[in-house]
Amino acid sequence: MGGKGMKKKYKIVIADDEMIICMDLKEILEEAGHEVIGMAADGVEALKLVKEKKPDVAILDIQMPEIDGLQVAKLIAHDHIAPVVLLTAFGEEETIEKAKKSDVFGYVVKPAEERTLLPAIEIAVSQFQTKNEIVNKVKNMERELAARKVIERAKGLLMINYGLTEEIAYKKMQQISMKRGKPIEIIAEKIVKEILLKQNNT
């Protein structure tokens, strides 16, 4: 089996106010083995399709009625739905600069051809996945840090209010966590709330 057969196949939404361009893109993509799951003629319809269909990638023309491609790309990026590849007319340097500064993962100069479009899609999907992995790692680190903070606070309150050693305070939380089948940070949060409430009422 050759390398060509190993290429990933993506579900794609296309948006361009010229239907003939949409059809040309659809033909290129389907010949490459991708699936076009929606086509839109304006920005509003494009955004709706992307939110409903959750494609692997969205190909948007910059110049579209209702909302332009750059604005749609920003809205899609805000919800982390899919990477966007923009279609731009040759010589739109100012627009290309704006695209670079926005959350766009690639752009292709019209008329789109297989040799430029397909690599742009591959790069966009790859960069989008890498960005999401980084975002998820940061979120996990933030969650872990928050969990550690609340556990440390609960330990401190148990030590001060009940005269426990640090080790016994932590073991007590572990035991409650195992008994109730809940993460230790959830138990720690409850302990902090209960002790602070008790202190406020005395």
What structural class is derived from the secondary structure elements?
Answer: alpha/beta
For the biggest sheet, the summary is: 5 strands, parallel
CATH superfamily of the largest domain: Response regulator
Report the radius of gyration as a whole number of Å.
26 Å
Based on Cα principal axes, name the global outline: elongated
**CATH topology (fold) name of the largest domain:** Rossmann fold
Helix content: 55-70%
Main β-sheet, spatial strand arrangement:
2-1-3-4-5
CATH class label of the largest domain:
Alpha Beta
Q: What share of residues are in beta strands?
A: 5-15%
* CATH-scheme architecture of the largest domain: 3-Layer(aba) Sandwich
Low-confidence stretches: 1-6
Return the average pLDDT rounded to an integer.
89
Number of helices: 7
- Strands, count: 5
Give the helices and strands as they follow along the chain: EHEHEHEHEHHH
Q: Compute the separation of the termini in Å.
A: 76 Å
As an assembly, this protein is single chain
How many separate domains? 2
Q: Tags for this entry?
A:
202 residues, alpha/beta, Rossmann fold, Arc Repressor Mutant, subunit A, 5-stranded parallel sheet, 7 helices, 12% strand, disordered N terminus
